[in-house]
Amino acid sequence: MTSIPRRGLLAGAATAFACALALSAWPAHADTAWPDKPVRLVVPYTPGGATDIVSRLVAQKLAEDTKWSFIVDNRAGGNGNIGIDVVAKAKPDGYTIGMGQTANLAINPTLFPKMPYDALKDVVPVSVVAAQPVVLVVRADSPYRSLADFVAAAKARPGEIKQALAGTGTLGHMAGEVLAKRVGFKVLNVPYKGAAPAITDLLGGQTDCMFATPQGALSMVKAGKLRALAVTSAKRLPVMPDIPTVAETYKGFEAVDWKAVVVPAGTPSEIVKKLNAAIDKALAKPATIAQLQAEGSMPVGGSPEQAAQYVRAEHARWGAAVREAGVQPE
Fold first, then answer.
1. Which of 61, 65, 94, 304 could form a disulfide with 271 if both were Cys (CB 3.0 to 4.6 A apart)?
2. Beta-ladder partners of 260
3. Can you name the residues that pair with 263 across neighbouring β-strands?
4. What is 119-180 written as a DSSP string?
């Protein structure tokens, strides 16, 4: 499995400082006054969701640090495709940026037979800002008390355990498919139009399990309505420290919903570097780290080159997963 490039806070701060030095050393003709007006941040999902929360946090921290102005523009639809298409077709002047993520940059290009944009050519990654796993949850009265219990039951009753999906092609769906293929079991996928109805039916007994986001699951786990069996990050989440990772049982397993700031292809490299340096600085702040961890995410950061390399690797990995699982769009 491809792992997200992580660094310590000191390394992140050092990178931001190095980028700042590089910016100050550019020749005068390469310098830019960008931004001298508000920057539109296109979020390809509805307000209040995981991607929206991270996007608004990043915009807030950038504005606090730089005094730049951001306008968050939610363009939901098409499993995240509509918003990224807006970015891909925008003027490459740095005044329209977007928050891409696992679905619209890595899963959808293989899931959908026709895409309005080329995820590897029409947008340029600036920074992978954060990553969030999903959590395998069951009802509190479920007989499954551990990942081992769940896997044993799924192997013993192929296709009988009903797995709720927030939607076809979501990270929760694909994480379940990858785990099932690796371990050798089958479940019955039951797709819904969003996480809320999926969790409602799980609580009501219409389904048996779900790979849910930490935001969607945590309050129910704390209330004793759901039981968390495992998280799909490489390391345990600070917000759920007692919940083991899938990787503790199946070495190397990782499935995260990462968020990456992207710009239209052709955006000047000076702007990309300037935005990247500002993002790295914001991500290194203890307050930013604490806020991301509180909602179940992990800060990432890194250079534009690292971001591009990571997105390419994830595009290949999830594309292969979609093909192997034979997943079809709803």
1. 94
2. 100, 128
3. 124
4. TTTTEEEEEEEEEEE-EEEEETT-S--SHHHHHHHHHHSTTTSEEEESSTTSHHHHHHHHHH
| φ, ψ dihedrals at 276, nearest 5° | -60, -45
243-254: per-residue pLDDT in tens? 999 999 999 999
pTM of the model: 0.84
By residue count, the chain amounts to 330
Residue 121: Cβ within 10 Å count: 9
Sheet-wide strand order for 135-139: 188-191, 162-165, 209-212, 135-139, 226-231
Burial 292-313, CB ≥16 within 10 A → b, else e: bbebbbbbbbbbbebbbbbbbe
**CA-closest candidate to residue 214, choices 147, 296, 131:** 296
Query: Any residues with CB less than 8 A from the CB of 165 and at least 6 apart, and which?
Result: 172, 173, 176, 189, 190, 191, 192, 198, 210
- Tokens of residue 280, six digits: 């790295």
Across the beta sheet with 39-43, what order do the strands follow? 70-74, 39-43, 96-101, 256-264, 123-133, 298-299
Number of Cβ within 10 Å of residue 17's Cβ equals 14
Question: Alpha-carbon distance 301 to 129, whole Å?
Answer: 5
Q: Under DSSP, is residue 7 helix (H, G, I), strand (E, B) or coil? A: coil
Question: How crowded is residue 43: how many other Cβ atoms within 10 Å of its Cβ?
Answer: 25
Determine the Cα–Cα distance for residues 78 and 304; give it in Å rounded to an integer.
26
To the nearest whole number, what is the mean pLDDT of the chain? 90
